[in-house]
Each structure stands twice: as C-alpha cells, then as structure tokens.
Amino acid sequence: MTMQKIGPSDDDRTVRLAEHLAFSPSFQPLFNDGMALVDETAIYLDGPGRTEAKSLSRQAATLYAAESMRLTTRLMQIASWLLLQRAANQGDMSREQVETEKTKVRLDGIGTGQGSPYFDDLPEAFRALVDKVLKLERRIAMLDKEIYGAGAKAQQDDSPNPVAEQLSLLRTAFRS
C-alpha cells in the first residue's frame, strides 16, 4: 500500500466550489436572479406597494417606510457585489481589484424590522420580498466569505455605515 504525500503543490489543486461558481459561467443564474429581484422590488415599491402602504396604520406605515429603505439599501449592496463578481468573471477586473472595491459593499450590516410587532401588518407581498432579499443576501454573504475569507468581513466592519450615520443625524435633529 503506497501513501501519497500531500505537499504544497497538492494545495494548489484544491477546488473551492464557491470560488469556482463565482468565476465560471455557472455564476450567470445567480446574477440573473439577483438582478431580477432588484427589478421585481422596484416594480412593487413603485406600484402596488405604494398603494398598499396608504392603507396601513401609522405604526405599520412607519415600519413599511423604514423597511423599504433597508430593502433598497440591501439590494444596492447585493447588486454591487454581483456586478463586481461579473466583472471579475468576464475578466474586466482582477481578483485583487474586486477585493479592493468590495470593501465598500456591506452584505449583512443592516438590521431588519421582522421582529417588530407591526411586521405582520405589512402587505404579504412586501414581507415576501423582504424574505427573498434576506435569503439572497445570506447566500451571497456565504459565497463572499468562502471566496475572500473572514478578512473581508473584518475590512467591512472598519468602514462607516452610511445608513447608521444618517439615522444618527435624524435622531439628533429630532431631539432638539
């Protein structure tokens, strides 16, 4: 029985499935799903969502407005990540360029209003969109961690959160 010695050259041949997905043609369905969700959300918020929001109680309408902002912010971050990955996949950017640019992308830094007592008062279609976007965000965050490692998250934590900064400014303004 012969034993095969595992050396550094064997490590170079290890296939990382997440990285293979992100840098191969099989990335296109994920990209398409993400961009379709961006479109679906925009159509809903500009159409039926706007109409449905008018019939909500004041508390639920406030939650709807806050959750809509979180939803669109989350989708912008997802779209940014997908576009960066597509650029890398198509050879328009190197992995190093993507790593530098993606430090501006936050994949899990925004809270959610799902724990609010008024969340169930929100329109069912809106809650379904929130759920779909959260699932996609988690999936992409897992891919990102698998591809770029935990260091990517640490870099993100050092960057300022623009939504939190705006909320802080609003709190300060309304306390006066």
Structure write-up:
Helices cover 69% and strands 0% of the residues. With 176 residues, it is mainly α. The longest helix is centred in the middle third of the chain and has 32 residues, at 58-89.
Quick description:
By secondary structure, this protein is an all-alpha fold.
Number of extended strands: 0
Describe the largest sheet. none
The mean pLDDT is 81
Question: Roughly how much helix do the residues carry, as a percent range?
Answer: 55-70%
Q: What gyration radius follows from the Cα positions, in whole Å?
A: 20 Å
Helical segment count: 9
The coarse overall form would be globular
Fraction of residues in β-strands: under 5%
**What structural class is derived from the secondary structure elements?**
mainly alpha
Unreliable residue stretches: 1-10, 152-157
* Span of the ends, CA to CA: 80 Å
**Helix and strand run:** HHHHHHHHH
List the helices and strands and how they pair.
Blueprint: H1 8-12, H2 17-22, H3 28-46, H4 48-53, H5 58-89, H6 95-101, H7 124-148, H8 151-158, H9 162-175
Helix pairs in contact: 3-5, 3-7, 5-6, 5-7
